[in-house]
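Worked Example 4.2. Consider the chain below.
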Amino acid sequence: MIDQAIQQYTLAITLDPSNYLPELYSSRALASIGQFTQAEQYASAAVQDAPTDPYVLGNWGYMLYKSGDWPSAIQQLSLTVNGGKTADGQTVKPLPPTNNDPWVSTYYYTYALVLAQSSLCSQALPLTQTILDASAQ
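Applying the procedure from the previous section yields the following structure tokens:
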């Protein structure tokens, strides 16, 4: 079933190479079956098409975390949560926490988790409070 989905997403990429959604969805499909390295590659390709979209950067950060590349995950998830500048100087606006999209919550808690696991607890604690505040709304 996942293979068929990936085939259809690949066809969509061929038909509209500038559309990041098939790459985003491919990465998530592959992650759902534990193929995180391949999922990270699709997520990276989506970022090439939408380099300042914090949602797409968050997806890439999540896949980097699941692939074990914590330093890169921190970088991408920081851009997602805090905003900032990409490596080539483009501005990324922060993605606010929301209860409407479970992926946004995933980006936030993955960022807090990787910060804590990387002994950056002073950065993880305020983020955890942000997550708690957002979930209370």
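The chain has seven helices and two strands. The helical segments are 2-15, 21-32, 36-49, 54-67, 70-82, 102-117, 121-136. Compare this with Example 4.1 before moving on.
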